[in-house]
Every structure is written in structure tokens, then in C-alpha cells.
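Repro case for the chain-ordering regression, as requested:
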Amino acid sequence: MADGTVYLYFKNKEDVLISILADAIGRVVAEIEERFKTESDPIRKLHYLVSVYFEKLGTDKNLALVTQIHLRQSDQAMRRQIGDIIRPYYGLIDHVLRDGIEKGVFRPEIDPRIARRLVFGTMDETITAWVLTGAKYNLLGLIDQVVDLLVHAMKK
Amino acid sequence: MADGTVYLYFKNKEDVLISILADAIGRVVAEIEERFKTESDPIRKLHYLVSVYFEKLGTDKNLALVTQIHLRQSDQAMRRQIGDIIRPYYGLIDHVLRDGIEKGVFRPEIDPRIARRLVFGTMDETITAWVLTGAKYNLLGLIDQVVDLLVHAMKK
Amino acid sequence: MADGTVYLYFKNKEDVLISILADAIGRVVAEIEERFKTESDPIRKLHYLVSVYFEKLGTDKNLALVTQIHLRQSDQAMRRQIGDIIRPYYGLIDHVLRDGIEKGVFRPEIDPRIARRLVFGTMDETITAWVLTGAKYNLLGLIDQVVDLLVHAMKK
Amino acid sequence: MADGTVYLYFKNKEDVLISILADAIGRVVAEIEERFKTESDPIRKLHYLVSVYFEKLGTDKNLALVTQIHLRQSDQAMRRQIGDIIRPYYGLIDHVLRDGIEKGVFRPEIDPRIARRLVFGTMDETITAWVLTGAKYNLLGLIDQVVDLLVHAMKK
DNA sequence: TATGAATGAGCATTCATTCAT
DNA sequence: CATGAATGAATGCTCATTCAT
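-- result from build under test --
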């Protein structure tokens, strides 16, 4: 595909990266929401929250490069757009946390906003470390250990 | 300060950013190491690990902008340098985790490498979120809640 | 032509200038070598050596500006490249000088290295003077007089 | 001497280089003119013309660097000044040539303007080659061979 | 007189974007 | 629809010059 062809389908480079992110996050969120319809256990929900995200990025190195490397070089205007796109996923994390608290599985004293950063930050750091090594090992093999730590952080 | 002035003190733009990071991490690590000489409780060590880092960035918005925003736009060569600079801090995290496991405070089954990403990823995400809001609230007020989550994630 | 366009065809500004020189000298040398195949008289060879060089620069003011003005502002690294490019032409001068001495046309006591500087220096000075006047007169009209001086300098 | 001190004595960098040249050429011209008062042989005059110039540059590498390298990077305005400064030396060359023709030593058919380029071009090329090798050999050792070639170029 | 830290105009180069084909 | 050569705004850096001390 030639350089110029991109501009037939996207407004600019920003639009390309944003679209890739929006598409990926959209699928992740849709898949998780679908699953949540039939899943009520907060811990299994949290496990699913992490595994779908890891699967999507862990099986698509280029996508991971976009989200963990290229999108980090964005300016303020773009960062706002990124925020808008990720918000639904943040919403799912918040939902799981509140649900877990409500159901007496997670500690009621945790602040969902801070716990959300724990969850997303841990995932993000794990994926970035994996990308920067050149995706040499299997990211999916870390899911259980990551979820175990997150669950312990919040559960009663 | 004029454009050219910076080149009297730094080799290039990369050198400016790297020097700022190296200086800050150096101070953080030195301060923590000093404290660790008289502190043996892994949980209080972890608290200190987080608070010194938060204090350094939370009281210097420009430093936080450099570490959370500007340094993220770096190329591969620079990322390796950044890795070298942060490694001592990673070493401190690892030390606390191993020490906590040895002393029977943290669960022996946790993988320190993954737990390190939990610790650093949570801190990083928390600080980035703070910077992106324009540092409108006090970052230091989050220390106890962040540490509480991290401790629960790992303790027996 | 826009600033950036040149970088589609050349590595950098140095490459532009060097390529122009290499191309010109390459043509000059090829033309002279071709002629030398059927020419055995050293004096006529010397005449041809000068006239091809003068013709190339004397009919292309921009080329002359590059060789006599722009390429003189080069740094040490570039000067070495220039030396490598001009060497074949120097080789032709040396060939003519040695050939002339062998054939008993030029004085055997002349040092070819110094005589080469006489030949090239005279040509260079003549062309530079012409360029600096704005190429207001016909350079080619000087060929016979220049060659006459050079021949007398060396012949028995 | 500090950077700024230069500007107490010279208008700008151009002025520094120009002054160095003017001073050197001035001394060379004065010395030659002095000698010419008691010398009437055109060939010995030519020899003196070359040797004083070679001596001045050949015993002061920095001066040679200025005249052969630094002054070549000048712009049009500066080149005119350089021309004005060298003109007296050109005048001496012209004088010797005309004198030699008048006295029947040099061939009457030579054009002094072109012969001047032969003389100056050969000297210039010889000195530049010497500077570019790092002044590793003794320039003065070439005087006799250079003058011999120049004399043969022009004498009857 | 002398200093040298600070200056900022100038320039080579890059790269996201355009547009004639 | 697709191309890719051409574009030129943006930027990192240099270096001759200035000026407060």
C-alpha cells in the first residue's frame, strides 16, 4: 500500500493510530460486556477483564506496538481522544470493582479510582515490558499471576 | 533562556532529558537506600519506596512532565538508556519484595518480576493520571491508599 | 524544487555536491581516456587534457560554481572524498607528463608531482578567476594560451 | 584570550581573517618591493617573488591555514576585499612579466594576465597541497623547482 | 581592557501530507 | 481507487556575536 493511499481512508496519522486503538478497545469491550452478561463472580470478571486485553495485544504485536509505543508520542489534543476511547474499558474496571465491593468480595474501603489505576497500570506495565523485549515470551502465560496479585490487592 | 544556551550544558536534547531523569532517580534511590539502612520492616520499606518517588515527582510538576510525558517519546536507543537509569530503582523494589518473602510477610508464591510491574505500573499510572489532569490535586494524598493496595496484593 | 525534494535523491548536502563533482570528473576522465587511445603526441594530449576540462566547466556555469566555490567550503572529511574523485584526473596529468618525458618531448628533470600542480593550479586559477567575474567572457578562448604556457614550462 | 576579546580589536570574524591576510600580503609586498629596487634581472625577480611568498606561508602554518583554507569559505562581499588585498601582489607579478618581456627575457607573445594565473595558480596549488598534507614536508624545498617551471613557461 | 556565559539567527534535515497522474 | 514523487513546516543544533561583570 502506497503512502498516499492511507489518506483515502484516514484523515491523518493521528486518525490512523486512534482508529486502530478505537477498533481494538471496541472489540475488547464488546467481548467483555458480552461475557459479563452471564458472569456474576467479580473475581472471574476481573480475570476476564485482564485476559481479553492481554489476548488482544499479546497475539497482535503490531497492535501492542501502537498502543504501548506509538500512541505514547501523542500531543495533548490526541491524548484527550485516547482518553475518550479507553473510558469504556475503564468503566468496565470500575464496574467490576464496585460489583466486587457490593457483593462483599472486595474490601469496601478501596477507592475504585485508585484501584482502577492499580489494575490498568499493572496491565500496562506488563504489556509494555513484554513489547520492549521484542515480544520474546508468551504474554498470556502471565495472566494468572497478574490477576492473582490484583485479586489479593482488593479482596477481603 | 535562549535555544542555544542549553547546548552549553548538555550534549543534545536527549542528554537534557536523560540527565534530568538520572538526577531525579539518583536522588530518589540514594534517599531510599539511606532509609533502608535503619528500616527492616518490608511493609514500611514499601511505603517508603512509594512515598519518596511520589514526593519527588509530586512536588516538581516539570520533572513529572519530563518523566511521564517527554521521555515517553523517545526512540529505541534512548529507551535503553532510560532502562539503565531506572534499573537501580527496580533493584530496590525487587529487594523489598524478596526481603518481604524471606521474612514471611509477603506470599512466597509471588514472582518478584511480575510483582515489580504491579508496584511500578501502579505508581506510574497514578502519577501519569495526575500529570494529565494538570496536577490539580495533591499526589501525596494518594500514597497511603496506593501502598495499602500494593501491600494487600502481596502480603500473606 | 522544494527543500525536502533533494533528499529523495541525495543523502545530504555533502552528497549533492560530491555527486555533482564525481559525475563531472567522471565524464571528463572518460572522454579524455577515450581520446588518448588514438593520440600519442604528449603535447596534443596535454592540450586535450586542458580543453575537455575547460569545456566542461566553461559551458556549465553552475558546475563551475560548485567546483570552484561551493566545494571549497568543505570540511576535512569531505576534502578527502574530493581528493578521491579528482585523483583519476590527476592520474591523467601524471600520465601525460611521464609519457612526454619518456618520449623525449618534456624535460627529464621535471618532477611530475610539481608539474602536476603547475598544470592543475593554472587551470584552477584560470577557471576561478572566470567564475568570479561572473563568467562574463568565454573561458574556452583561453585554452590555447594556457596550454602554450604549460607546454613551454615542460618541453625541452 | 577569551572569545569576546577578539571583538575589541576586530569588527567581526571576517575582519580578523582579512586583517591577517592584509598584514601578511603587506609584508610580502614590502619585502619584495624593497628587493626589486636593487634587482634588475627578471628571472631573479621571479625567483624572489615566489620565495618570499613561500617563506611567509611555509614558516607559518597557521597563516597558511588561513589563506588556503579559511579564507576560501568566504562570501561574495568578502571575496571582493580579498581581491583588493591581493591586488598589489598581482601587480608585482605583472610587473615582473612585463619587465621580462621588455628586457627580451620572456616571450613577447604571452598575455600577462594569463601568465599571472600560471604563476599564482601554481604557487597556490603547491601551498594548498602542502597544507592539506598537514605541512609534513618543507615547502621551501620546492621553490627552485617551481620557479624553474615558471621560468621555462615564459622565457624565450 | 578582558572575560566567557548567554544569545538567537541561520541552516540542514525529517516526515506527515498533498496531488497530478 | 491507488500511487509515490514532491512538498514545506517544523525542529534540533551550531557558531559568530554581545554584554554584564
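Ordering looks correct now. Residues 42 and 103 of chain C are 8 Å apart (CA to CA).
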